[in-house]
Automatic annotation (TrEMBL):
Family membership: Belongs to the class-I pyridine nucleotide-disulfide oxidoreductase family.
FAD/NAD(P)-binding domain: residues covered: 8-316
Pfam families cross-referenced by the UniProt entry: Pyr_redox_2 (PF07992), Pyr_redox_dim (PF02852)
UniProt protein name: FAD-dependent oxidoreductase
Alphabetical UniProt keywords: Disulfide bond, FAD, Flavoprotein, NADP, Oxidoreductase, Redox-active center
Record domain Pyridine nucleotide-disulphide oxidoreductase dimerisation: where: 341-451
Protein source organism: Paeniglutamicibacter terrestris
Cofactor or coenzyme needed: FAD
PROSITE patterns assigned: PYRIDINE_REDOX_1
Length: 458
């Protein structure tokens, strides 16, 4: 490839947004190259080491609740995960590789100039240029400068722990979504789990009544959460690991078979040589983008985790829509038009959230009404009882003046589905009364809205 305009598009990284855009533009007749660092990562984080493999294990762990520590059962779940992720990886690869106008390249890309990259693939080096470049390199586990916290042996990040033997005891450092999902999952598999978080309380961004329900469910599988816990150092030997921390000023330590470090994920920019292309980063290391996901270099866009936005697969997918619209459409889409983006943390039952919590709304001085009910007390919601798990809570925060939904916290079986309906209602300006009076199938979890939205307590 000699001429910088040889290609129409280069995508660096096989993430959700980039692979989708590569396919769309190739089908529209553009000449596209997609570069992925590892053949184990075709399809990106989500299907290989993120959402999908963890949810497979979480599902199988849920089916094992109450059956104790059972490495054989765990190994069977791991086998199922490996089969499914291998199938998805192959499918992801062939979806692009079979398109005539797409060149798939396995190697590590870095910039050598504006809209020009070099790819190292084993002993081979390739230089490519294009009219447009998409950076979609995702994020990597945040490293910790704590003594003894390098990944290896008994110290894990979310990727290595998925490939380790089932630990009898596990210490999780960090009580964010990664930390809590792994804690809940290993608790269900029968491991003794302790979570250490430095925050003032667990799930500090959630209302206390909602957080209490999640904690109670974690407690059901013997997960202990220690807050205000500041980890000082970690040590390990052939038999065990030990985490030294301070809680409320008092030194403590805890022993475990394995330690998971889950302190966030950092945009993957370290090997991109962004300076060569005039691409700037923010103070937190993300690629600087505007509302249309343009970087500071003309013709270069950043999609997904690497641009510092919310770290969710479906946000990367929406990033693809914005850039797709800029290239093929009206250019009107932007991150500024995103409303009510929901998210779900897959503890068991899952906690699904959208919009404001009650504490957020009160801090903002909004005039609100709040409807809240424990799932076990919702008569018109037999579905959780049918599937044998009636734990949880449903909470709505509604504007007292115009009846519009400002936020919701749903913690119950199926909440990862119901939240999408609530988010759509928020986006479309559907009032809580309309949602309350809607026809929903029966028996479903959605029909809880008929009852909960008719019971504003405060
Ligand atoms: C354990 C875990 C569970 C998660 N669960 C969920 C969930 O349930 N739901 C959800 O929505 N989100 C979840 N996430 C977050 C979600 O996985 C990410 O937000 C999403 O995958 C990010 O996608 P992306 O498009 O930014 O790129 P990614 O999918 O991260 O892809 C980036 C790709 O770029 C490649 N790459 C990096 N550098 C280079 C280079 N120099 N050259 C070539 N290739 C390169 C990488 O190998 C990688 O394949 C989870 C994350 C983790 C870690
Ligand atoms: N279901 C999902 O959608 C899902 C699941 C997993 C991950 N993710 C994505 O992955 C991203 C990364 O998740 P994460 O949980 O790794 O990071 P996070 O930043 O969300 O949480 C990190 C936690 O670690 C705590 N912490 C930070 N430093 C600490 C220290 N020194 N000692 C003790 N505690 C400390 C913080 O208080 C915080 O609670 C999330 O932002 C999320 O978007 C999504």
């Amino acid at each position: 490839m000699e001429d910088e305009n040889d290609l129409d598009l280069i995508v660096i990284g096989w993430g959700k947004g980039g692979k989708t855009l590569a396919g769309t533009l190739a089908r529209a007749g553009q000449r596209v190259a997609i570069v992925e660092a590892s053949k184990e990562m075709y399809g990106g984080t989500c299907i290989n080491i993120g959402c999908v493999p963890t949810k497979i294990l979480i599902h199988d762990a849920e089916n094992h609740a109450g059956h104790g520590f059972d490495p054989e059962y765990f190994d069977t779940a791991v086998e199922r995960r490996d089969k499914l992720t291998a199938m998805m990886r192959a499918k992801n690869f062939s979806m692009l590789d079979t398109l005539d106008s797409v060149m798939t390249i396995t190697g590590r890309a870095s910039f050598i100039g504006p809209r020009r990259i070099r790819v190292h693939a084993g002993d081979e080096t390739l230089e490519l240029g294009a009219k447009r470049i998409i950076i979609n390199t995702g994020a990597i586990p945040a490293s910790s400068d704590l003594e003894g916290a390098s990944i290896g042996g008994r110290i894990h990040d979310s990727t290595t722990l998925q490939h380790a033997p089932l630990p009898k005891s596990l210490v999780v450092i960090g009580g964010g979504p990664v930390g809590l999902e792994f804690a809940s999952m290993f608790g269900h598999f029968g491991s003794k789990v302790t979570v250490l978080d430095r925050g003032p309380r667990a799930l500090k961004n959630e209302d206390e009544d909602v957080a209490a329900e999640v904690l109670s469910a974690l407690n059901d599988v013997d997960v202990e959460i220690k807050v205000r816990a500041s980890v000082q150092r970690i040590s390990q030997n052939a038999h065990t690991a030990r985490v030294y921390y301070e809680q409320d000023g008092a030194p403590q330590d805890i022993e475990a078979d394995a330690v998971l470090i889950a302190l966030g994920r950092t945009p993957a920019t370290h090997e991109l040589n962004l300076v060569a292309a005039g691409i700037e980063t923010t103070a937190s290391g993300a690629i600087k983008v505007d509302d249309h996901l343009c970087t500071t270099a003309e013709g270069v866009y950043a999609l997904g985790d690497v641009n510092g936005g919310p770290q969710f697969t479906y946000v990367s997918l929406d990033d693809n829509r914005i850039v797709g619209d800029a290239i093929l459409g009206s250019g009107k889409r932007s991150t500024a038009d995103r409303v009510a983006v929901p998210h779900t943390t897959f503890t068991t039952p899952p906690l699904a959230r959208v919009g404001l919590s009650e504490q957020d709304a009160r801090t903002q001085g909004l005039s609100i009404k709040v409807a809240v009910k424990k799932v076990a007390e919702i008569a018109a919601m037999p579905r959780p009882k049918i599937v044998g798990d009636a734990r949880g809570i449903i909470k709505f925060v509604v504007d007292a003046q115009n009846d519009l939904i400002l936020g919701a916290a749903l913690m119950h079986v199926d909440s990862q589905e119901v939240i999408n309906l609530v988010a759509l209602a928020m986006r479309q300006g559907v009032t809580s009364t309309t949602l309350r009076d809607s026809i929903f199938t029966h028996p479903s979890s959605t029909e809880a809205l008929n009852e909960v939205l008719g019971s504003f307590a405060r």
